[in-house]
Design goal:
Helix content is about 40%, strand content about 15%. It starts with 8 loop residues before the first helix and ends in a 6-residue tail after the last helix. The chain is α+β, with helices and mostly antiparallel strands. The protein folds into 3 domains: about 270 residues, Aspartate Aminotransferase, domain 2, CATH 3.40.640.10; about 110 residues, Aspartate Aminotransferase, domain 1; about 80 residues, Alpha-Beta Complex (Ornithine Decarboxylase, Chain A, domain 4), CATH 3.90.100.10. The protein binds pyridoxal-5'-phosphate. The site of pyridoxal-5'-phosphate (PLP) has 14 residues, from α5. Belongs to the Orn/Lys/Arg decarboxylase class-I family.
Length: about 500
């Protein structure tokens, strides 16, 4: 039977509860906004009234049988999936759950090296062995991007015992691989396909966008509806289809890492975001795509600036491109993306999603207004007018793109005896922690990899360019395996 996507079962029930004037002798302690604090003063208590914990009638996310189940069924229908799980820990939680429910210790998983840190953490938690595929290196834009089909094909053929292939659809920069073909090949080899769709939640709602994981036939995907579809930050979904998914194992993994007090605000925001994108997305996304196209054309008129669009990425062996992203190469005028990112915020009150050495990235959604795009174009013109007369040297593309060699499994390295050394003494040591630039949160080195001088040079470069570097250890030190103790201790049977 066709689903009615005007319905919002969870949100409607929550609203009913919020308006019911029930006397609250349960948590949360704000008692649906019945106390005073600075945030209630600012926002009013309406949001707090919707922040209920687990009153009767509002169902249980750990084992939904009522309104959460109904809302999840509508979500699955909207995404063309058989089943959807609501997540209140972002796609970070979705990726942990997917990998941990598919790979046991020492089982292999094929994945691109430029995965989000949650995939690396899933390797530590599961004990899986990563088979990394090198992503396509775009030396013009200075980024690691999508996986190419033939590289995945090689990895699948060389590792017939791998459990799964993990694909990013799309990358942070909006580029997709040929997901359908990858799915067909992986399934032929009896491997599952699990998809990081953190940046692709809007794909199923316009045929002008790349295809989503379910349409491509993948087994599981996790989508950050909060990133591009308009739900509250941290609200994501995990969607599945087909006979390969072990729902008992998946459910128990999700419940292991899900809070027992999942936010009703987040869940309700998923319910209403699904209603909006399902009903309005097919009309509004083409308008947004047109707005983005016009904006790119205007930016291309600005001296020294150049946007990267679908045509550009297709010359870089990309399969598809999410046209709701705006990528601008700024380094030809002799300044970095980090400089422009900072200047746009400091001088023009514009917050971008991300900067890299050569580029800046704006992420648009159906919430983007034309005047906001006009403001971006105007500010970029001012920046170009300021720097072009300085005749700075264009920044050269990076020559070397290095990925560290793996020495041992991430889980083994994580549990090994460790010590701390200054970064400049870490050459040839084995990392016991991930070090990454945020955003995008893609690790430069992960536990178990050998730290080379090239890796340290990369880190130094990012540090000097003002990026935020995230790692466990601070102050110019890094956590490494203490080889002397480790050799006595390890026979790599740490399951
Ligand atoms: C490619 C990619 N995957 C996964 C994630 C994690 O998503 P979330 O922020 O919803 O936890 C991110 C977050 O930025 C990401 O960029």
């Amino acid at each position: 039977m066709e689903k009615d996507h005007q319905l919002t079962p969870f949100y409607t029930k929550l609203l009913e509860y919020a308006e019911s004037n029930t006397i609250c002798h349960d948590v949360p302690g704000h008692k649906l906004g019945h106390l005073k604090n600075d945030m209630i003063d600012y926002a009013g208590n309406q949001m707090y009234k919707l922040d209920a914990n687990a009153p009767r009638g509002l169902d249980n996310l750990n084992r939904p049988t009522g309104v959460i189940k109904e809302a999840a069924e509508l979500m699955a229908d909207a995404f063309g999936a058989e089943k959807a799980y609501f997540l209140t820990g972002g796609t970070t939680m979705g990726i942990l759950s997917m990998i941990m429910s598919v790979c046991r210790a020492k089982e292999k998983i094929i994945l691109p090296r430029n995965v989000h840190k949650s995939a690396i953490n899933a390797l530590i938690l599961s004990g899986a062995v990563p088979i990394f595929v090198k992503p396509y290196i775009d030396s013009v834009l200075g980024i690691a991007n999508h996986m190419e089909y033939h590289d995945i094909e090689t990895a699948i053929i060389e590792n017939p015992d791998a459990q799964a292939v993990f694909v990013i659809n799309p990358t942070y920069f909006g580029v997709t691989s040929d997901l359908k073909r990858i799915v067909d090949l992986a399934h032929e080899h009896d491997m599952m396909v699990i998809v990081d769709e953190a940046h692709g939640s809007h794909f199923p709602f316009s045929d002008q966008l790349p295809i989503g994981s379910m349409e491509a036939g993948a087994d599981m995907g996790s989508c950050s509806l909060h990133k591009t579809v308009g739900s509250l930050t941290q609200s994501s979904i995990l969607i599945t289809q087909g006979p390969r998914v072990d729902h008992i194992r998946l459910r128990s993994t999700i419940n292991m890492i899900q809070s027992t007090s999942p936010s009703s605000l987040l869940m309700a925001s998923l319910d209403v975001a699904r209603k909006t994108i399902y009903n309005d997305g097919p009309k509004q996304l083409p308008i947004l795509i047109e707005m983005a196209k016009k904006t790119r054309e205007e930016i291309n008129q600005i001296p020294g600036l150049k946007t990267a669009d679908e045509t550009y990425f297709k010359t870089k062996n990309a399969y598809g491109y999410d046209q709701t992203k705006i990528i601008v190469k700024v380094s030809d005028i002799g300044i970095t993306g980090f400089d422009v990112y900072k200047e746009l915020f400091d001088e023009h009150h514009i917050q971008l999603e991300l900067a890299e050495t050569h580029l800046i990235l704006a992420v648009l959604s159906i919430g983007t207004k034309q005047e906001d795009l006009n403001a971006l174009v105007k500010a970029l013109k001012i920046i170009s007018d300021k720097y072009i007369p300085m005749e700075l040297e264009p920044l050269l593309p990076k020559v070397k793109y290095v990925y560290p060699e793996a020495y041992t499994r991430p889980r083994e390295a994580y549990h090994a005896p460790k010590k701390y050394v200054p970064l400049n003494q870490a050459v040839d040591e084995i990392a016991a922690e991930s070090v990454m630039i945020y955003p995008p949160g893609i690790p430069i080195v992960i536990p178990g990899e050998v730290i080379s001088q090239d890796i340290l040079d990369d880190l130094d470069f990012y540090q000097r360019s003002g990026s935020v570097i995230l790692s466990d250890t601070e102050g110019g030190y890094i956590k490494i395996i203490d080889k002397e103790y480790w050799e006595k201790w390890s026979d790599d049977d740490y399951e």
